[in-house]
Design brief:
26% strand, alpha+beta, 4-stranded mixed β-sheet, 10 strands
Length: 200
């Protein structure tokens, strides 16, 4: 603790993180606070802080399960669909979506998000110098059949828990690009663009 690192004994039982001890402890308190609020009435917030979940993939899988059960579809044929809303502050989400869920807590690396106008979805744009981890606006997560996924004009962005990438992979988000050219996604692939739940 004198060197501001998380003790190995804590790391053994904790979630993946690259934060120093002080920031890690503050993050832990926020996670516990969300769970306490969640458990009072067992009703999820209108926009859930997905980064504060100890196992975020379980929550996302539940969205697919509910959709598959409701629509009578095979779970194996379902995938997650990511729609970035033009809402930067999660507190501005007042109504729950009819399908899926609103979530927040994603940070971009290698790019920035440009808000859309009106009902139009925004898109990826070149990152701003010295802005290493710009926060993504509120995201609407739904589940659709794999055959209905739109590939043209979207970048398959890997989502990770931490910037260590690798074993902290959660799922692949489809983020809208400014261009619909077939090779447009190579720009973002070469830039190593990814979404993270815990920037350092």
């Amino acid at each position: 603790m004198f060197v501001n690192t998380v003790p190995d004994l804590w790391v053994k039982y904790a979630y993946a993180s690259k934060k120093d001890c002080l920031n890690w402890y503050e993050d832990l308190l926020l996670r516990c606070a969300q769970l306490e609020e969640y458990s009072e009435e067992l009703v999820a917030p209108v926009s859930l802080w997905i980064s504060g979940m100890f196992n975020p993939m379980s929550y996302l899988t539940a969205i697919m399960q509910v959709t598959a059960r409701t629509e009578g579809l095979a779970l194996d044929n379902m995938t997650l669909c990511t729609t970035v809303l033009n809402i930067e502050n999660p507190k501005n989400c007042t109504d729950r979506p009819e399908k899926g869920a609103y979530i927040h807590g994603f940070f971009l690396q290698g790019a920035k998000w440009e808000l859309g106008r009106g009902q139009d979805q925004g898109n990826l744009m070149d990152m701003v110098p010295k802005e290493l981890y710009p926060e993504l606006p509120v995201v609407w997560i739904t589940s659709i059949e794999k055959t209905k996924v739109v590939k043209l004009g979207f970048y398959d962005c890997p989502v990770y828990t931490t910037t260590a990438r690798g074993a902290t992979f959660v799922y692949t988000a489809n983020l809208k690009m400014d261009s619909e050219e077939p090779d447009a996604e190579f720009t973002w692939i070469l830039a190593g663009v990814g979404l993270f739940m815990q920037p350092e």
